[in-house]
Design a protein that fits this description.
By secondary structure, the protein is α+β, with helices and mostly antiparallel strands. It contains 24 helices and 9 strands.
Length: 629
């Protein structure tokens, strides 16, 4: 792949500007059921030349059902002369001959220079005076630069980069893989639909809302007995004796371990190379998060005395998925610095929540299991020090750690946090040796395939040759080296956490009856303490501690963020769901108090979300220019 290192844009799954038949270069698409393949390509890129052969076979297979779109992405650094060749193709397009010159350039052996293109243009019978004038015109240069700039905004960093029906194609480039993707069997359609939904900025938050809504529906309709029977159903495994938990407990202690693992990995990333890497920049979200815990806790305790005081931790938790989802939906109205601040604050907030669960809400401690937990943590440390990069040893030891923490009376989901700090990382690899390894393996396969065709062997026989196994192992090794063990685990678990783990937990935790008896002692105090703590206490604590830290020069304010915008972000920190619901289960026994606390969390979350969104929407905002994108 040819890379353009000057592009700093993040990869964008959805094509930003749709295909325009009046502007783009298009081929085919004259039959019903059209599938569109758009390529950002470089005429001098050798990989684009290889892909052209695949596209030719696809056009033969699909005929006019395939609409092929070409956009320029010349990489002048990697392929000197690529820009002038792209401009020459545009000059030919002015006379309706783009595809002739496109096919000629890709069909000719490299190198291809300007003089050769001029000779071919002359052979086509083009008006050479007009062609040379268009070649040097500002309009042609601007046309190529516009394609290049749009590609960078779409996250294109190398050629070729493909978009199928408006969504980036990250699959294999061989003929059969692409044909399957374009013909869209049921499995491919389901997979693409899932990727489209996952690309939505607030998709994780939407799943949480949906799960909570379904749980509330079940708990407040004739479905309630079935819902409660499901949540309270016992599920046992025979491991170190018989471990029996209800479905709700498995969701809160078992599945949430995966969520806490991802939280811990995010903490590590922010501390090493993110918003928490610079001490003064990291100080602000840390201090603000502490203030965002102390203020709502103080408000709750000011309202509640006696038995209900134990719910003080419930309004202290900020939900990452919801708060960041709202910021994503607001788009360019939210400066990048403000997003980083809220994300870092939510990470620190999760650390404080984890510590709160471990310290203030343990079950009866068992010293023996606590010692086993320490031994398991020490074993994880040893695996890290020995630079063990295989995943399965960490999975086995973490399973033991989870059981030990549960047996010790500590919330077992904390095993995920401990694992995150012991997963090994590796220095970023040099690209050169990995490129050589992958190229050698693929070249050997290509050579073997050529020889097999010459002697008349079927292609399927190649899979049975030793070279196939050798090449696949080398390609896998090169691919795996790009990601550390922690990276691979995070990529594998993140979708499960967002779309399975957290929704299941929300479904098991939010199914409370809305018709609770608020006349019960302390019910109104719980309701008031949590709602006021989330809607007023949380932003107040964030704002006051941030102001003090900035004034005393302990911390740096986020760049390009106005006070109005900062207040809106502070209000969004009152959005609480996942961990707050877990706190409610820990603080109160199942019953009226727990139900009231969960209702208060849901109400407070909605009010904080609406208030924060309203403040941010009313803040003055400067649209992002193309140069900033």
């Amino acid at each position: 792949m040819a890379n353009d290192s000057s592009s700093g844009a993040a990869a964008t799954f959805r094509l930003l500007r749709p295909v325009d038949g009046g502007r783009d270069h298009v081929r085919g698409g004259g039959e019903p059921g059209v599938v569109t393949v758009l390529a950002y390509a470089d005429f001098l890129c050798p990989y684009c030349r290889r892909l052209r052969d695949v596209m030719s076979r696809l056009r033969e297979a699909l005929g006019e059902r395939l609409l092929y779109v070409f956009r320029h992405f010349p990489n002048e650094r990697a392929h000197p002369g690529a820009e002038i060749i792209a401009r020459a193709a545009e000059a030919a397009a002015q006379q309706g001959r783009f595809w002739e010159i496109h096919d000629w350039i890709y069909g000719r052996e490299l190198p291809v220079d300007q003089n050769a293109v001029l000779e071919f243009a002359r052979s086509l019978g083009l008006d050479m005076g007009r062609f040379e004038a268009d070649l040097g015109s500002d309009a042609t240069r601007k046309r190529v630069e516009e394609d290049l700039a749009e590609g960078r905004r779409n996250g294109v960093t190398g050629t070729p980069t493909l978009f199928v029906d408006g969504f980036r194609y990250d699959g294999a480039w061989d003929f059969y893989s692409m044909l399957e993707a374009l013909e869209r069997p049921v499995a491919a359609r389901v997979q693409r639909s899932a990727r489209v939904f996952a690309s939505l900025p607030a998709s994780g938050g939407l799943m949480l809302i949906l799960a909570a809504a379904v749980a509330l529906l079940c708990a407040n309709t004739p479905l309630r007995p079935y819902y409660e029977a499901f949540i309270q159903a016992s599920f046992s495994i025979a491991l170190f004796g018989k471990l029996s938990l209800t479905v709700g407990e498995w969701c809160s202690e078992g599945l949430l371990a995966m969520f806490f693992l991802l939280v811990g990995l995010e903490i590590r990333r922010e501390a090493t190379a993110g918003a928490l890497a610079n001490r003064r920049a990291a100080a602000l979200p840390v201090i603000a998060a502490i203030g965002g815990v102390l203020a709502p806790a103080a408000i709750y305790l000011a309202v509640n005395r006696g038995p209900t005081a134990q719910g003080w931790s419930i309004p202290t938790a900020t939900d990452i998925a919801f708060s960041l989802g709202i910021l994503a939906l607001l788009g360019q109205r939210v400066p990048a610095g403000l997003r980083v601040f809220v994300a870092a604050l939510a990470v620190v907030d999760d650390i404080l929540s984890v510590l709160t669960l471990a310290i203030f809400y343990p079950r009866t401690f068992d010293l023996v299991w606590l010692l086993v937990s320490a031994a398991a943590a020490a074993l994880l440390f040893t695996l890290n020090r020995w630079r063990v990069y295989a995943i399965w040893p960490y999975a086995l030891v973490t399973g033991l750690l989870w059981l030990a923490l549960h047996g010790a009376g500590v919330h077992a989901a904390l095993a995920g946090v401990l694992l995150s700090f012991f997963l090994p990382t590796q220095p970023a690899p040099a690209a050169g040796p990995l490129l050589a390894q992958a190229a050698t393996a693929l070249a050997a396969l290509e050579h073997a395939e050529t020889e097999a065709k010459q002697v008349g062997n079927e292609r399927a026989r190649l899979r049975q040759e030793p070279i196939w196994d050798w090449a696949s192992r080398n390609l896998s090794a090169a691919s795996e080296r790009l990601l550390s063990t922690a990276d691979r685990i995070e990529l594998a678990l993140a979708p499960w956490s967002a779309y399975v783990v957290l929704p299941l937990f929300a479904f098991s935790a939010t199914g409370v009856r809305l018709a609770v008896d608020l006349s019960q002692p302390g019910a109104y105090r719980i309701l008031t303490g949590i709602i006021v703590g989330l809607v007023i206490g949380k932003p107040l604590g964030v704002l006051l501690t941030s102001w003090v830290a900035i004034k005393l020069r302990f911390a740096l304010a986020p760049e390009d963020v106005t006070p109005h915008q900062f207040i809106g972000a502070a209000c969004l920190c009152g959005v609480a769901d996942t961990v707050a619901l877990l706190m409610a289960d820990r603080a109160f026994l199942p019953g009226v108090d727990s139900a009231v606390a969960k209702i208060a969390v849901l109400v407070g979350t909605m009010m904080a979300a609406l208030l924060g969104t309203l403040v941010l929407l009313t803040a003055p905002y400067r649209a992002q220019s193309p140069a900033d994108a």
